[in-house]
Design brief:
With 324 residues, the protein is α/β, with parallel strands linked by helices. Helices cover 35% and strands 15% of the residues. It is built from ten helices and nine strands. Strand 2 and strand 3 form a beta hairpin.
């Protein structure tokens, strides 16, 4: 069985049983210090670019970290993961999805949950230009979705260097996760994401005024509207329904052939019931599902702890498969 029933995470008190608090407070207030990146820019085959942030300490193992929606390599959870793995003899590559590194990308397209081409290029580049013996993948939220979709799509063709993956707060079913943001109790999260995404489309409009129509963009009030009008057409989907059905990562779980962990808290406010793939994982030889009672979305807060439980759990899981 690949269902992990007894999670090592426990909330730090009854006050923290609220998934909203466990999500919001670390996101707004947690500070992670002592992380210094060196940036590398690589070109993409379609004449765009990706910005990669490295911590290179001469180790023979590498962790590649993928951030969440409208995040970047400087989000607290990425920096915390980078610091913890580096302190445990890993080099680090925290990459930024297109438009997320602080500079808008060149092409008309942006990025989305199901876009695995850029992750594949990042992995290929790291393996080809450095001398790492083993590589592990860690993904948070959207980054977890992209990571699992990449592994499932490529199955036995995943590079032999990659030995394990750990993902957290994964919107395993894209439609169900988007639907959660229609609930009034998730208004804060919806508005925060939409504000950032609408701002980015306006930037893109300045680059491509004839291709992108922003009339009425400030009247968009849901992810469904945004994805119908922008995400789908900008990335080759027929409409938002086609996007949700085909970009979702859970379609590809049967193809995963690398030991992979999904950790989704039961009180995550951004995940619906289809984002807990018990059936897909129950008899899977490689995919493990852990569902702590609490933790929120990319939260898993521990009072006074300098190291996130997510970092500890990720390293614990991949250590079984990444020993030199």
């Amino acid at each position: 069985m690949s269902l992990i029933k007894n999670s090592s995470y426990s909330r730090p008190g009854d006050f923290w049983k609220n998934g909203y608090l466990q999500t919001i407070i670390p996101s707004l207030f947690r500070k992670v210090r002592g992380v210094r990146y060196s940036r590398e820019r690589i070109d993409t085959p379609d004449e765009d670019f990706l910005d990669l942030d490295w911590i290179q300490s001469g180790h023979e193992r590498l962790v590649i970290i993928s951030h969440g929606l409208e995040g970047n390599s400087y989000r607290h959870y990425v920096k915390s993961c980078a610091r913890h793995f580096n302190q445990n003899e890993y080099d680090v590559l925290a990459w930024n999805y297109r438009s997320c590194s602080g500079e808008i990308n060149k092409n008309l397209r942006l990025y989305h949950h199901g876009d695995t081409d850029d992750l594949e290029q990042v992995i290929t580049h790291a393996i080809a230009t450095r001398r790492y013996k083993k590589v592990v993948l860690v993904g948070f939220s959207m980054g977890g979705s992209t990571t699992l979709k990449y592994l499932g799509e490529n199955g036995p063709n995943v590079p032999a260097h990659i030995v394990a993956a750990a993902t957290f707060s994964v919107p395993c079913n894209l439609w169900d996760s988007a639907h959660q943001l229609t609930f009034k109790e998730n208004w804060f999260f919806k508005q925060r994401f939409l504000k950032k995404m609408i701002k980015k489309v306006k930037q893109k409009h300045k680059q491509y005024p004839n291709e992108i129509n922003i009339r009425g963009i400030d009247e968009i009030v849901s992810f469904g509207q945004f994805d119908e009008r922008y995400t789908a057409p900008l990335h080759g989907f027929k409409n938002s329904r086609h996007f949700y059905r085909t970009a979702t990562s859970d379609l590809h779980y049967p193809g995963i052939r690398i030991p992979s962990l999904i950790v989704n808290a039961k009180n995550d406010p951004l995940l619906g019931k289809e984002c807990y793939p018990y059936k897909a994982c129950k008899y899977h030889d490689f995919l493990h599902l852990e569902t702590p009672r609490a933790g929120g979305h990319v939260g898993f807060y521990k009072l006074g702890a300098k190291t996130s439980w997510m970092d500890i759990r990720a390293l614990e899981f991949v250590a079984k498969f990444a020993r030199l």
